[in-house]
Structure formats: C-alpha cells, structure tokens
Amino acid sequence: MSPIFTIVVFTADGCPHSAALCEDLRRRGVRFREVNLSRDPGGMAELRRHCWEHRLPVVVDHERVSIGFRGCASTFGELGLED
C-alpha cells in the first residue's frame, strides 16, 4: 500500500525557495508529496484546484494553502512556467 501524504508541496526546478522548503521538511522528518511543475506540467491542474497563485513554493496541508518559504517566493515568470 502506498503512503498517504497529507502535505503536498508544489515546486519547480530553479526555485531556491522550493529547494529550501523541501530540504527543511526532509531534515525535520515531515512526509510530503512533491509536485515539480517543471518536470510535471500536468501538476498545474492539481495546483489550480487549490489556488490560482503564480508563485512557488505552494504548500497544501488538508484545506490550508500557504505560499512561499520564510517569506520568500519565486514567480512563475522567473521560473519559466508562464509565457
């Protein structure tokens, strides 16, 4: 049986804030599922079910959505995720 993750983290390659967040979660032993939008563009539809934010990282924990890590975030434009 695959594990059930209650925390989903939306990230992208080249986003230092996404990398720092994932590193922090791993260091603290928090189980989460990462959706990397650079590698899985289909993940954008999943992100849109939770919010219309255009910055990363986005953390979805049950019904709560938070944007950024330690007050910082990268825009989709900066990460090449928008035209």
Molecular structure report:
This protein is α+β, with helices and mostly antiparallel strands and 83 residues long. The chain is globular. The N and C termini lie far apart (39 Å).
In summary, what is this structure?
The chain is built from 2 helices and 6 strands; from the N terminus they run βαβαββββ. The chain is of the alpha+beta class and 83 residues long.
**Helix coverage percent of residues?**
10-25%
Number of domains: 1
Principal-axes shape call:
globular
Low-confidence stretches: none
Tell me the CATH architecture: 3-Layer(aba) Sandwich
Largest sheet: 4 strands, mixed
* Cα-atom radius of gyration: 12 Å
**CATH T-level fold name:** Glutaredoxin
Q: What structural class do you assign from the helix and strand content?
A: alpha+beta
Q: Total number of β-strand segments?
A: 6
Q: What is the residue-mean pLDDT, rounded to a whole number?
A: 92
Order of helices and strands: EHEHEEEE
User: At the first level of CATH, what is the class?
Assistant: Alpha Beta
Number of helices in the DSSP assignment: 2
The CATH superfamily is identified as Glutaredoxin
Topology overview:
Layout: E1 7-11, H1 16-27, E2 33-36, H2 43-50, E3 55-56, E4 58-61, E5 64-67, E6 74-75
